[in-house]
Amino acid sequence: MKQGSAVHKVLEEQVYTTVPVDVQTKEDTWGLKLWNIIQGLRTLRTTGMTRELELWGVLDGQIVNGVCDELSYTCTDPELEARLQKVESKNKPAADQSTISQFFGNTSGTPTQTKRPQKDDRQIYITDVKTRVSPTVPNGVSLRPTMMQLMIYRKLLADLVDGSVDASVIFTRFKLKPSDHFSDSFISQLAGLDLNLREDATEETFAPVESMEDAVDELLAHNSLTQLWTLMVLEFQKTFPRGAETISRVLRAEFRSQKDGAILGARAFAYDDVALQNYVHDEMKWWKGEREAQGVDVSETFKCRSCEFNETCSWRIGKFEEATRLSRARTAARLSMSGS
Description:
The protein contains 11 helices and 5 strands.
């Protein structure tokens, strides 16, 4: 675990310099979280990549938190992206084709084409980094947990981009006072950080904070969790100008050696909203106490070898007893047939 964390730390420091910040209150702690997200989004717009972006959301009534290892404008699997875009283009109306509502909304009865303003059409890609002791890259059922984790990250990100996350639910859960001001020392520390990443940026792609005075002004203008959350949502909207459509459906898992961080390989796959909904619904039923715990499928019993509850697992014991009964029943049936 420590070795894996060290690999992630090295990757993060390729983008950021870690600076300690003293916090006085719980609100300061959360203010730092939001400020880091804001700076992460600005870094993405400025440099084309950001790492360790924290995400918050609500899935099936439960607060979910995760840290996205990497977001970038670099396509992680061009072939898969091309296939997905080809499928999506078939399901979209042609550029000169009106929708039903547009047609009937036109009193002349002649379809019209609305000229849309040009926007940044770049896609943003999500990558998760996994460290492994084994030099192999997982496949099949072994890859499923990573796939679901990446899909959840995309869902959380899409909800933040669309502004559909109710911040009050999160603030209430953690017993925060969202209207309280941050401590003066906290603001002065953040304002003193070197956040000048704007040399190659334009006003369209980056909100400049070019001096300590500018940073102080910005923080004082958003001097509470409620106000800083609002600023964060605006930064999401700037970074993802086409809303959730800005986020590519191509998700990539990169596997690195725990020993030295060397890349072992990668797997890319497409986001599947239905598969994610089914997975979350089933898992939340257990989380809410609406179903019993279930053991792994037969195809995943290899996981039992490293489980500390291997010897006392009721699911495993039950499956063994079930297999024994079936075996005895088949034997008895064969003996009965041979006797007749």
